[in-house]
Amino acid sequence: MHGSGNVFRDLGRENAGIEQLKALLAAEIIKALNRERLTVRSVHARTGIAAADFSRIRNADLAKFSADRLMTILNRLGAHVEVKIRVRRVEPVRAEATA
User: Fold this and answer.
1) CA 75 to CA 29: how far, in whole Å?
2) Rounded Cα gap, residues 55 and 4, in angstroms
């Protein structure tokens, strides 16, 4: 069986699309921090965003972040965020298919 390309959807999460987006944005933030060898304290001084927020992002604790906030953080790190959206119809799961 192949995955859908979204681990959150494969796990049956209700907001799989937004969780996937947030995870991708957080990964880009972590890449930027690693690439520039920034500590959470130094990135706080550079961006004005709390060091604790960067610690949460590094630990994949994204519950308190909106996608918009993560994009703002990337912008403050000097990145330009471009989001492309593809909408696909999801077929409902039939009861006998899950039994």
Assistant:
1) 10
2) 29
